[in-house]
Amino acid sequence: RSKIVVSCIYPVEQPCEVYTDSARVREDRGAVLMLLAARAPESTEIKALCKQYGAMDGSRFAPIEGEKCIMCGLCARACASLGTGAISTVMRGTSKKISTPYDEPSSACIGCLSCAKICPTRAIDFAEDEKKRSIWGREFELIRCKECGAPIGTKEEIEYAAMRCGEEPTYLCPDCRKKKMADVMAHAYGVE
Ligand code: SF4
User: Fold this and answer.
1) Which of 30, 104, 123, 141 has its CA 20 to 30 A from that of 36?
2) In angstroms, what CA-CA distances link 148 with 74, 112, 161, 173, 174?
3) 35 contact partners, CB below 8 Å, separation of at least 6
4) What are the φ/ψ torsions at residue 149 (nearest 5 degrees)?
């Protein structure tokens, strides 16, 4: 007995043999990719996978023009797991999308880019220069490490992370923080 299952949510049973690249799996993957290509016709990642799996022509499905999002929900889950919850799925049916409440800039967003970095199709737009970062309709000031000057993130994300750890924000990059900790340890143990 065998069946196709969604690997990320299927509980493993014993005894069990798992095939991830059989002809049947590849065929089903191609069918799913055909549908995803209609959902997100602008995604280069989905186009490449369609080619790799020989996905069928899905021209009978009306494409959502200009769309890159495949509605996997990873971005909203990442945001929720941080405790910020600035974005979620909104609307229904073919209008369903990921957004902030009422498509307005959200005060819950800390500009950390977790959503954009986890997105498999790079569907979340953001912009960044030396001084600021823009995402979800908001602009954030970028803070630099007070020791070495390297950019370390937005003021909001640094302060939020410190608050979650019950600490005061240090405004140091990871390397300078490690160096400072090593200096504190060396001083504590009397090492020069
Ligand atoms: S992670 Fe990207 S593809 Fe997935 S729902 Fe969010 S925006 Fe869409």
Assistant:
1) 104
2) 34, 21, 20, 8, 11
3) 58, 61
4) 85, 0
From 35, 72, 90, 122, mutation site for ligand 1 pocket: most ligand atoms within 8 A of C-beta: 72
CA dist 134 and 151 (Å) reads: 15
Hey, which residues does 153 pair with through a beta bridge? 143
* Both tokens assigned to 1: 């007995």
From 35, 43, 75, 115, mutation site for ligand 1 pocket: most ligand atoms within 8 A of C-beta: 75
Any ligand 1 atom below 6 A from CB of 173: no
- Evaluate whether 34 touches 50 at the Cβ level (below 8 Å): yes
Cα distance between the two ends of the chain: 68
Taking only the tens place, the pLDDT of each residue in 30-77 is: 999 999 999 999 999 999 999 999 999 999 999 999 999 999 999 999
Is ligand 1 within 6 A of the CB of residue 90?
A: no
Q: Please write the tens of the pLDDT for every residue from 121-176.
A: 999 999 999 999 999 999 999 999 999 999 999 999 999 999 999 999 989 999 99
In angstroms, what CA-CA distances link 150 with 82, 117, 140?
A: 24, 20, 16
